[in-house]
Each structure stands twice: as C-alpha cells, then as structure tokens.
Amino acid sequence: MTNALRPLSVGELLDRTFFLYRRHFLLFVGISALPSLVMLAFGLFTALLGSEGSAFFASVSAVALVFVYLVTTAVSQGATVVAVSQILLERETDVEAAFGAIWPRLGELLFITLNMGIRILIGFLLCFVPGVVLALMYALAMPVAVLEDRRSSDALSRSTDLTKGYRGRILLIYLLLTILITIVTMLWQIPATIVVALVSGSARTGRFPLWAQIGFQFGGFVTRSVLGPIMTIAIALVYYDVRVRKEAFDLEHMMQQIDRPSFAAPPATS
C-alpha cells in the first residue's frame, strides 16, 4: 500500500485507516495518550473526592468534565490530523511535532470544537435528524481548521461545502467505526463490571467501591488512548479524499513535488 492521493471507496478508506493506524501505532497512540492523561487525572480526582462531595460538587464536576473533554478532544484530534497529513504527504513527523503544529492555535481549535458541539447538540435536542445532519456537515471542520488555517465560522462553512454529496459516505464510516469501537470497549467493560459487582456486592448498593472506580478510570484511559485515534484518522483521510474528488488535490500535490528544487532532499518515507 502507498500513500498516493487518489479517490478511494469506503472500503479503501477504512482499509487505509487501519493500515496507517497499525503502521504508525506508537505515533497515534502517543498523540492520543497525552491528552487522555488529563482526563485520567481529572477522573481520579473526582473519584477520590466524589464520595465526600455534595450535590454542588457533583454539578461542578460535571461542568468541568465537559470542558476538560472538549480541550482534550481538540488537542488530540488536531494533532492526529497533522500526523495523518504529514504521513500522506510523505514527510517526517513525531508526537512532539504534531502537538507543536497545533499548540499556537489551541484556543481557536477549542472554540471550533465548542461551536460545532453546541450546534450539533441543539440539533439533537430539537430533533434527532437535524443533529445527525449537522454532525455530517461539520465532519471535516477540524481537518479544515488545522490544514487550511481557517477560523471557526469559516471552517464550518468550508466543511459544509466539502461534504456536499459525500455525507452518506461519511455517515457509513461513522456508523461502522462507532460500532467497532463500541464492541471493543464493551469487551472489557461488561466483564469488568460483572466481576466488580460480584466481588464487591455493588449490584445491591448501586455504587462501585473506590478501587473499582479507579480501575475503570485506568481502563478508560487505555481505551481512549488506543481506540481514540481511529475515527480521527478516518476523517482526515475523508478530507483528502473529498479534496481529490472535488479539487484535484492529487494533481496539485504532484505539481508541487515536480516544482521542488532538484537539490532539495527527497520527501521522507514514513
């Protein structure tokens, strides 16, 4: 398999997603793990204090959890998009370089994530279908923002234009990967929950003991780190696929390589 930019079928997009994920496993898991450490630290903090906390503490924790989730999502998705792009364009990259590329624009990426999330949430609250449509319209907003250096409203508008005619493909990719990720997650969560319930008697009390809560937090950390990059890799590939189809980006990239000075170093192979 090569990184040649060309139109891909849904099957080929998924195949390339897992090819890149396997081949650069440590890179993508490393990118996902660092923001996930923040979620782990927050989860452990709330688990340790939750038993002594009041309803007010629970409410504040829930709001803080949403904010932490948005920040870590923006960071991990943005850095993953950078890594996928560098690999496809046959340039060297690593975890530090991926984070370094998005760090100056972290605030903007967070605002885009928040803006997009609020719109989609309102769509789901009003009626399920508008929420799905908005999620598909804005599916490419993060790659657009990162790779084209666009601000929030412009990134959402650009994503809306790019996804026209391809939202069915994006929906299918979302569904297939969501099902896969959910199944893999449940493979450890369900047995672990049953074992904890039997050992601790939490099935009767309705509350897991502290040691079980801590264990689930570490399990969630591993799950987020290992499975988190898959969807973002796929969306980054969809972004390039749509640009190839609509804007002949493959030809544009090829011409850029031809125009490269003859004494320049050849592009690095990942």
Write up this protein.
- The protein has 270 residues and is mainly α.
- It has one domain (10-257).
- The chain has helices at residues 10-23, 25-50, 55-88, 95-102, 106-126, 128-137, 141-148, 152-163, 167-200, 202-205, 210-247, 249-258.
- Helix 3 crosses helix 5 (106-126) and helix 5 packs across helix 8.
- The longest helix is centred in the C-terminal third of the chain and has 38 residues, at 210-247.
- The chain starts with 9 loop residues before the first helix and ends in a 12-residue tail after the last helix.
- The model is unreliable at 260-270 (pLDDT under 50).
- Structure class: mainly alpha
Give the biggest beta sheet.
none
Task: Give the domain tally.
Answer: 1
Strand content: under 5%
Secondary structure tally, helices? 12
Number of strands: 0
Kindly report the average pLDDT value: 86
Shape: globular
Poorly predicted sequence stretches spanning 5 or more consecutive residues = 260-270
- Helical content, roughly? over 70%
Rg from Cα: 20 Å
Order of helices and strands: HHHHHHHHHHHH
Distance between the termini: 12 Å
